[in-house]
């Protein structure tokens, strides 16, 4: 990283064609975390994110919705900002490529490169993927002749365009990568990009005439700037290129662009070439992280496996979401999301390790010292080792954060959390409390526990926005948490004896796995009719006949039923739909024994999105009725009818 007292990190600017999913959240959480960590170390950090609002794809989408492009985009951009607010991302600038300042920046860079002789007009003939806004050579298409990124059909395009002489910078790029081996990370991605460049760079089409939703080319009103040339310059707009020379010089070259590996080529080949042509320095690093997979595959709406981060935050809290994303997956590799691993992380690391450490310690201070932090008067035989682990942990956190290895950094911090828990078991405060001669030793033990909690809280402020403040409040510390530094975290003995600790609720309550899946079961599979107050009242919101027609209700015969291990509420059912068999999960175990429902013909929603309940796949939803007293009855057919028959 640069030897300067500022730190500049960016996310990609996201394309506003839909609401963001957990993959975008992963990228932005990482960028926000490193920005906050550098602030903790004393740097002046800038975190830039934004929205990439031009291009043919957005213009078409707006037309399909009967709206002007900007009108269509504005509502989606608001959802971006809402999500970052929910995630407590502290960006310093949200760059919209439709802003006047950004347009001027793009036009100035374009004109500067044109005047240098590195942009010329010609005719483009080739393949174009509108969803990805990407040009492709025939040899780059997949085996079916589709876009290699999204596997959708490409279109042959012929139009007059301006071209950037990217081929001119091929040797310069290779030389730069050889002299700056840390520019592309992880290292395996560096090799991929070097191979791409060595295959030969072609000049890049950077304008379009077939649509007009873009930044006008400053030398030709018939053209708009190609969306990727436009979007990349947002990294300059974010630190006031052209408007504030002092600020720009303070922060550029940037420290790191954090991007998904699928757009690494744009950031490590096209972007550096543009900067070279514009006589601007290149950023220190581009880090291409892996994909966040679900059930081993990429998220997509067609697969029905897109994870909504806002729902996760609503269910589990922002700290849990951020912790899971940063801890569960090694940054730079692909990782898989599952609800089971999510809950396991919360319960194990946050509730058990950290939450219990705080609860036990504050409770013992209340019990043995009337809630006042005791003095640290003596030393126990375990203190030196505890402090050594603390120093080693903080050093390792620092080193891993420098390498953007968030998972390793948190693991190192949790080494201290677990060692501090072990310190309780070693020193046995409850035994010391029985011996008045060991009261000073007891005070030292509790002081060290509280002090480590103080240090851990400071270190966690980069990762978690809420829990550190709750810890701080329970520790009773008067100094503002926001004023603490990384040095304060590394320094032992920052607590004032006599300060009163404060009782508080558990900062991370354990999640009852079965209860959570029961809620999912009720909302996604059972539909047992738990009505809220609003639903009890006569509603003016009716559905149409067409709406009802979209629900595929079918008669299904239960052919197998068994209890799900470790659950006292769920049954796994195999049902016969006539032309196929399905597996369903239903929360009816308290009302029916498996053997008593074999052969029953029930009604199911056959086109319900598949779900995973308590680790078991469920491909449909049973219908049942329940009353206020908790009684429940399956919806069955009165007389026998063919399995698979439609219900209308």
UniProtKB/TrEMBL annotation:
Cofactor binding: number and manner: Binds 1 zinc ion per subunit.
Main location: cytoplasm
Motif 'HIGH' region, residue range(s) on this chain: 14-24
Catalytic activity: tRNA(Met) + L-methionine + ATP = L-methionyl-tRNA(Met) + AMP + diphosphate
Its EC number(s): 6.1.1.10
Signal peptide, first to last residue: none
Database matches in InterPro entries: aa-tRNA-synth_I_CS, Anticodon_Met, Met-tRNA-synth_bsu_C, Met-tRNA_synth, Met-tRNA_synth_2, Methionyl/Leucyl_tRNA_Synth, MetRS_core, NA-bd_OB-fold
SUPFAM superfamilies reported for this sequence: Anticodon-binding domain of a subclass of class I aminoacyl-tRNA synthetases (SSF47323), Nucleic acid-binding proteins (SSF50249), Nucleotidylyl transferase (SSF52374)
Entry function: Is required not only for elongation of protein synthesis but also for the initiation of all mRNA translation through initiator tRNA(fMet) aminoacylation.
Record's protein name: Methionine--tRNA ligase
Organism encoding this protein: Halanaerobacter jeridensis
């Amino acid at each position: 990283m640069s030897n300067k007292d500022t730190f500049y990190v960016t996310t990609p600017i996201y394309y506003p064609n839909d609401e963001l999913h957990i993959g975008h959240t992963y990228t932005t959480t990482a960028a926000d975390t490193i920005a906050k960590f550098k602030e903790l170390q004393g740097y002046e950090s800038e975190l830039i994110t934004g929205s990439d609002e031009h291009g043919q794809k957005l213009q078409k989408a707006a037309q399909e919705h009967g709206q002007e492009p900007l009108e269509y985009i504005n509502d989606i951009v608001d959802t971006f900002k809402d999500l970052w607010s929910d995630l407590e991302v502290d960006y310093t600038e949200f760059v919209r490529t439709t802003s006047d300042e950004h347009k001027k920046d793009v036009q100035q860079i374009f004109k500067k490169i044109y005047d240098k002789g590195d942009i010329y007009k010609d005719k483009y003939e080739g393949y174009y993927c509108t969803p990805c806004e990407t040009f492709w050579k025939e040899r780059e298409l997949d085996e079916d002749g589709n876009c290699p990124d999204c596997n959708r059909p490409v279109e042959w395009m012929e139009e007059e365009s301006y071209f950037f002489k990217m081929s001119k910078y091929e040797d310069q790029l290779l030389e730069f990568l050889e002299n700056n081996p840390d520019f592309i990370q992880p290292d395996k991605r560096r090799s991929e990009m070097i191979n791409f460049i060595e295959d030969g760079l072609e000049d890049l089409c950077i304008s379009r005439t077939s649509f007009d939703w873009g930044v006008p080319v400053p030398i030709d009103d018939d053209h708009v700037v190609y969306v990727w040339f436009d979007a990349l310059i947002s990294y300059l707009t974010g630190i006031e290129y052209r408007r504030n020379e002092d600020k720009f010089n303070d922060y550029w070259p940037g420290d790191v662009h954090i991007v998904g590996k699928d757009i690494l080529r744009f950031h490590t080949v096209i972007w550096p070439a543009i900067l070279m042509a514009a006589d601007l320095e290149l950023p220190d690093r581009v880090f291409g992280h892996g994909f966040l997979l679900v059930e081993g595959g990429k998220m997509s709406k067609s697969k029905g496996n897109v994870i909504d981060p806002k729902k996760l935050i609503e269910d589990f809290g922002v700290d849990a979401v951020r912790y899971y994303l940063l801890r569960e997956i090694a940054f730079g590799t692909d990782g898989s999301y599952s609800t089971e691993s999510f809950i396991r992380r919360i319960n194990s690391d946050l509730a058990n390790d950290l939450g219990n450490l705080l609860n036990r310690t504050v409770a013992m201070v209340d019990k043995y010292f009337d809630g006042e932090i005791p003095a640290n008067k003596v030393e126990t035989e375990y203190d030196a080792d505890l402090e050594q682990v603390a120093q080693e942990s903080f050093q390792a956190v620092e080193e891993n954060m420098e390498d953007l290895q968030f998972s390793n950094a948190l693991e190192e911090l949790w080494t201290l959390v677990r060692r501090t828990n072990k310190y309780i078991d070693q020193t046995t405060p409850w035994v010391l409390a029985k011996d008045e001669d060991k009261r000073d030793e007891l005070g030292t033990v509790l002081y060290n526990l509280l002090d480590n909690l103080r240090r851990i809280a400071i270190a966690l402020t980069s990762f978690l926005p809420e829990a550190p403040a709750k810890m701080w409040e329970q520790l009773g510390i008067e100094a503002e948490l926001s004023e603490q530094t990384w040095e304060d975290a590394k320094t032992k003995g920052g607590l004032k004896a006599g300060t009163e600790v404060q009782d508080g609720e558990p900062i991370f309550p354990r999640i009852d796995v079965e209860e959570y899946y029961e809620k999912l079961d009720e909302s996604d599979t059972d539909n047992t009719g738990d009505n809220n107050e609003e639903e009890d009242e006569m509603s003016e919101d009716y559905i149409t006949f067409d709406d009802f027609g979209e629900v595929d209700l079918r008669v299904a015969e239960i052919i197998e039923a068994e209890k799900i291990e470790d659950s006292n509420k769920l049954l796994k059912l195999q049902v016969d739909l006539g032309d196929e068999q399905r597996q369903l999960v239903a929360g009816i175990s308290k009302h029916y024994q498996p053997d008593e429902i074999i052969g029953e013909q029930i009604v199911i929603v056959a086109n319900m999105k598949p779900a995973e309940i308590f680790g078991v796949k469920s491909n449909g939803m049973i219908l049942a009725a329940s009353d206020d007293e908790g009684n429940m009855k399956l919806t069955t057919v009165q007389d026998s009818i063919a399995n698979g028959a439609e219900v209308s």
